[in-house]
Design goal:
Elements lengths: L11 E3 L9 E7 L2 E12 L2 E9 L4 H15 L7 H6 L8 H16 L9 H6 L14 H7 L8 E4 L2 E4 L9 H18 L5 E5 L2 E5 L8 E6 L12 E7 L1 E8 L4 E4 L2 E4 L14 E7 L3 H14 L1 H11 L3 E8 L2 E6 L3 H5 L2
Antiparallel strand pairs: 1-9, 2-3, 3-4, 4-7, 5-6, 7-8, 8-11, 9-10, 11-14, 12-13, 14-15, 15-16
Helix pairs in contact: 1-6, 3-7, 6-7, 7-8
Length: about 350
């Protein structure tokens, strides 16, 4: 399975309420057909999934098959995946999942001015946020300059179902869109099976439609960043009641380490080659798809507060909820369309 491909799942936590693991929930009769709210959950891609949906029968086998197909396309750690073949410079034909990821990555790369870049993989590995065996023992400006030769979306192109690189050392990392894209895939599967009420959560990225088993909007919590990150109990910054949403969150307050006195977060700016250093702690984005929201949430964390707000406005189909550190307190900043888009 994918493990580190999907990075650290941050933000949106589901407010599940009562109920045990892998239970079927409220039953109702409509037109002689019994509809059950099913709950499937487990671990996948190095993170968790929680899926609730109303349907006559449990769809967990179909969901697992779809997740495995996703892994076979976009896992960096499955040696037989399409992505692994591309990174190993093996001649391979790309599939629809890979090409959908590529199309969204292309768009958000342009929208963000290069802040979102799926070729950032060599830098991520060098700073120790991939496999620990890939982490460099020492990082100097000269080292970063040498690695940056292999980073840049302008160094790759997808033509007729084949990826072409200007340099064989260029590597692709779909982790910044993978959880969101997987949510879209599972939501699409549920829709194809006639489900009109469902919630898909993979590692904190969420697609919600319709209502829960109580006939109420789904409740989703946005995690409050812990400035000290020293084992304090997780708190929620805000709870949203939503019925139709694609939402993703990225943040810098969990996955980091210190190199001497330097704090290194897992968000790497592909334009500079270094981990970002700014006061934006968390970015939650809603958009027209969860994959797009996922990509833009990552871009927000690279850009910082002011530039993130500008990018979201240019996107036109997105809104954001930013949590910013101001001295010893937290400040929430939302884009102008936030209230309207979460009320859809």
């Amino acid at each position: 399975m994918i493990s580190a491909l999907l990075g650290v799942g941050l933000a949106a936590l589901l407010i599940w309420g009562a109920g045990g693991k892998d239970e079927n929930e409220r039953t109702k009769d409509e037109g002689g057909m019994t509809e059950i709210y099913h709950r499937n959950e487990g671990k996948i891609f190095g993170t968790y999934y929680n899926i609730r949906y109303e349907a006559p029968a449990d769809l967990h086998d179909s969901i697992q098959a779809a997740l495995q197909a996703f892994d076979n396309s976009l896992s960096m750690f499955n040696p037989h995946s399409v992505l692994s073949a591309v990174n190993a410079n093996r001649d391979t034909v790309t599939d629809p999942l890979f090409e959908a990821m590529w199309a969204e990555a292309t768009d958000v790369y342009a929208l963000s001015g290069g802040a979102f870049d799926i070729t950032v993989a060599p830098l991520v590995k060098a700073f120790g946020f991939g496999r620990k065996s890939d982490q460099l023992s020492a990082i100097s400006p000269q080292t970063i300059d040498s690695i940056r030769q292999f980073v840049g979306f302008d160094k790759v192109e997808l033509v007729d179902h084949h990826v072409y690189k200007s340099n064989p050392h260029v590597q692709i990392d779909g982790g910044a869109v993978a959880k969101g894209q997987a949510c879209d895939v599972i939501a699409g599967l549920l829709y194809e099976h006639g489900c009109s009420n469902y919630l898909v959560d993979i590692g904190g990225e969420v697609v919600a439609r319709g209502v829960n088993d109580k006939g109420e909007p789904w409740r989703i919590g946005i995690t409050k960043p812990n400035l000290n990150n020293e084992g304090a109990q997780e708190e929620l910054q805000e709870i949203l009641a939503v019925s139709d949403i694609h939402m993703a969150t990225s943040g810098n307050y969990r996955n980091f380490y210190y190199a001497g006195s330097e704090r290194r977060s897992h968000t790497i700016d592909p334009r500079t080659g270094y981990p970002v250093q700014h006061s934006l702690l968390s970015a939650t984005v809603v958009s027209s798809s969860c994959m797009r929201a996922d990509a833009m949430a990552t871009a927000c964390m690279v850009l910082g507060e002011e530039q993130a707000l500008g990018m979201i406005e240019r996107a036109q189909d997105a809104a954001c909820y930013l949590i910013v550190a101001k001295k010893d307190s937290l400040t929430v900043i939302t884009s102008p369309k936030w209230e309207k888009m979460i009320a859809k």
